[in-house]
Amino acid sequence: MSLNDTVSAERTHIAFFGMRNAGKSSLVNAVTGQQLSIVSEVKGTTTDPVKKAMEILPLGPVVIIDTPGIDDEGELGKLRVQKAIQVLDSTNIAVLVSDATRPLLREERELLELFQEKNLPHVTVFNKCDLLSTLPEAGEGGIYVSAKTGQNVHALRELLGKFQGTEREKPIARDLLSYGERAILVVPIDSAAPKGRLILPQQQTIRDLLEGGNIVEVVKDTELELALKDRKSPPKIVITDSQVFGKVSKIVPENILLTSFSILMARYKGSLLPFLEGAAKLKNLQDGDRILISEGCSHHRQCEDIGTVKIPKWLKEYTGKELSLSFTSGGEFPTELKDYSLVIHCGACMLNEAQMKSRVSRAREQGVPIVNYGMAIAQMHGILKRSLSPFPDLQKLL
Fold this sequence. Notes:
- The chain folds into 3 domains: 3-161, Rossmann fold; 174-265, Rossmann fold (3-Layer(aba) Sandwich); 270-380, Rossmann fold (3-Layer(aba) Sandwich), CATH 3.40.50.
- 32% of the residues lie in helices and 18% in strands.
- The chain has helices at 24-32, 74-86, 106-117, 153-161, 200-211, 224-228, 245-251, 261-268, 272-279, 306-319, 353-365, 373-380, 384-387, 392-395; strands spanning 12-18, 50-56, 60-66, 93-99, 122-127, 142-144, 182-186, 215-219, 237-240, 257-260, 290-294, 324-328, 342-345, 370-372.
- The strands form 3 sheets. Strands 2-3-1-4-5-6 form a 6-stranded mixed sheet, sandwiched between helices.
- Strand 2 and strand 3 form a beta hairpin.
- It is globular.
């Protein structure tokens, strides 16, 4: 797999912020070597975040994001500014682009404070330095560049590249097995399954296990019993799609570790413990409670859709309550969550770790429990403790 085949959720997200006409779009084009963004002397040319997945050496696979100006005006301008600020939720490295011919403005200083509050690696770029006769000190984490002449653009790439590697490569499942041990992955094929391919968490788990030197078998839930039968030695672990958790748990012997792709992705994105706490809320839901069911990606809804059909059905059966359900997908996630009693989130395979952690933090800061599909389904099927068998420390908390 080449670097350009890396999925967006696994790429370093580098976002460019600043005032209108500070030269953000020109700088993005200079850094990428492409006409990614439209450049104009007219203020506010960039009206929505523009994203491009690409490879830039020495950065490797990245997503470059050009954002609207944070000083946009009018009602529509306020919405554009909100969109720009929302980009911070998925940003790994922030770049503040300022006009080198003037001092930093209040809005720019506030942005820098926001970067620091979020503990976000960042660079302050003083653009248009070709208009200066001499270059003052840029300060720590600052650099003078000219998107117009290309001055110091390569140095900016090198500076950004120093942040690379701050996120260590984390395993999805391979650390749960020893070299050469066997894993069975249960992948149901129904009307909601994509044609001709496996979904991203399944692909990533297979790749991760193979990199660990493990033996991987992939079966449908209808062939799981056959895969387990007549084996001299059982598999170390069975990893299943959450929607067949109940069925699979009845088939897999207790001496075999059992979990789901969704639970593994929660661990991979750093949200396993908060989701465990959120799962407990399911037992205490009351009539009229509002539940937000959120998908990280946008896709065509099928008749057997897990988020809008299966989970609502299981919620009704498990709680016996009349609940008020709301649904969001893709980049849509409410800023205000206080009116909800619980958030049930997908496995977040299409969101990067920063974005998922931001959503979890937002919920917890507002006192709203949050759980993901896998742990919610395991709780509703009475197998949550079993589904955490690969993680004995968490099992003890139940």
